[in-house]
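WARN retry 2 of 3 for item q-0093 after timeout on previous attempt; input resubmitted unchanged.
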Amino acid sequence: MKQALVMAVMAGLLVAAAGCGGGKGEDEDGGDTTDVQPDETEDTAPDAEEDPDAEADVSIDEVEEPPDDSALDFDWEPPEMPDRYAWFQAQQISSSGQRMAMAYGDSGDYSAVTPTRPLWADADCTVTPYPPAGGSTGFVRLSAGTPVTMTGGTGTHAPIECTFDPADGYSCDVPATSGTTIYAAGDTITTSGPGDDIPAFGFDVVAPPAPSLLSSASISKSAGYTVSWSEIDADSIAIMIVSGEYDFVERTITDGNMVQCILDLGDPPITEFAMPLPALSLLENSAMGPEFIVGFVQIMGLNGASETLTDGSVVEVILLNGTGAQATITD
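OK item q-0093 returned
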């Protein structure tokens, strides 16, 4: 079921980077979770206009060779999805002294879906554009009933109520404000839906603890980057690194790429992971200038469970809890 879980996590866009919650409807702006401040753009004005007729002072010896793209070659098999699948996801993350939370979901008929090929992938990690261009071809949205509720949380906002929209899927009533929490580690969250196109369901998932990010947030794409975190008791660990142009108006990252890795923690649980070099190579470098490029690294404990319903539909619930930091990305 890991392939379905990975697809749901990708669809949900875990990264709460730079205020981009990635949820649907009213939850789409998850609030600013980075250290980015408007005054950091003081030196970002374009350089004086250059003479378009001036010849470039570059000798033949100085022209760079085209990059070797062979490292980006990869084998990829589309994920095997249930024909009818619903997922619901809640997450919270601490960054720059703030606590943010969000929840969302979707459900539909995947029998005719043609998944979009990622930019790069291996068994653990996937690189995709951020934000995504759109949904997969062939997806038909179905309702699992409304509202879907998540009860049992002891955070500042509980319970959670998610309502269905035929155009956007499920959006949930978690306030997009700093300081919102939806559960504490160890809370048993009961997610239930009244049923509609997809039958009624209800089952429990225990909220995971939040790991601490122990490694530096300085990422060298050529030297490599090993993410390390505090040991936690959870099913999996989810690592996301996103970089792209920061839009100060929308408070979000645009025209970027996201690396996402989902790892089984194992026994004893792992506490570090070396990010694949081909994946890192697809991230943009941090930059101050006409385009203000920012990076963000996020690590989250993940617990999930799925239930197969009477008609064969599969429902999956994913709970995440984590920590993030603004990253510096260099060659």
